[in-house]
Design brief:
Layout: H1 2-16, E1 22-24, E2 39-45, E3 47-51, E4 60-65, E5 68-74, E6 83-89, E7 92-99, E8 121-124, E9 129-132, E10 138-139, E11 142-148, E12 153-159, E13 166-171, E14 174-184
Parallel strand pairs: 1-14, 2-7
Antiparallel strand pairs: 3-4, 4-5, 6-7, 8-9, 8-14, 9-11, 10-11, 11-12, 12-13, 13-14
């Protein structure tokens, strides 16, 4: 009986462990089951003058059109480089296509480093979706990086010491550590 108890205890401990965070590279011009298909609902003339502030990768831009900021917008690695695709999120393919007068040159953009960059979007272990925001807001001197679909905030730095990445979540007046199940760069 003692052996059965130990075996059951061991099996329960295996199921209680968190899984590794799944790292996904968002590919705006490829069809994938892991991200929404692109649906261009508007084409606008605009400008893309700097690298995205929400995701540091070489093909991501911050664009302006008709008085609105679009961030991130992505360019193809080939072609005339006069178009930037601005999707709502990795899970929402509704997109705006920004056309520019001059070819976009990303030679001075920072290359993606998944070990340091903040992802564009995350899904928490409980299934809650969170997206990067540009915010000057902080809580206890910790910068706010994400707003989640349940109106909670993810703040501070991503804890990457373990294969199961974690962040602090502010939900109402409580702070807790949450696991990141999946992240999109």
């Amino acid at each position: 009986m003692h052996r059965v108890y130990l075996i059951l205890l061991f099996l329960c401990s295996l199921t209680a462990q968190s899984k590794d965070t799944l790292l996904k590279l968002y590919r705006p011009f490829n069809v994938s089951d892991e991200q929404a298909n692109i649906n261009i609902h508007a084409t606008k003339s605009g400008q893309c003058l700097q690298q995205s502030k929400l995701i540091l990768r070489e093909d991501a831009w911050r664009c302006h059109a008709n008085g609105k900021v679009y961030d991130p917008c992505f360019t193809k690695n080939f072609g005339n480089k006069k178009e930037a695709l601005c999707p709502a999120s990795p899970l929402n393919g509704e997109s705006t296509l920004i056309t520019v007068n001059e070819p976009l040159n990303n030679i001075f953009h920072t290359s993606l480093d998944m070990s340091r960059a903040y992802p564009w979007a995350v899904i928490l272990e409980n299934g809650t979706y969170c997206q990067a925001i540009e915010s000057k807001e902080s809580y206890d001197h910790l910068p706010v990086h994400y707003r989640c679909q349940d109106n909670s905030l993810l703040l501070g730095h991503i804890q990457r010491c373990d294969p199961n990445w974690k962040m602090l979540q502010k939900k109402e007046d409580q702070i807790q550590t949450v696991s990141l199940a999946k992240v999109w760069f």
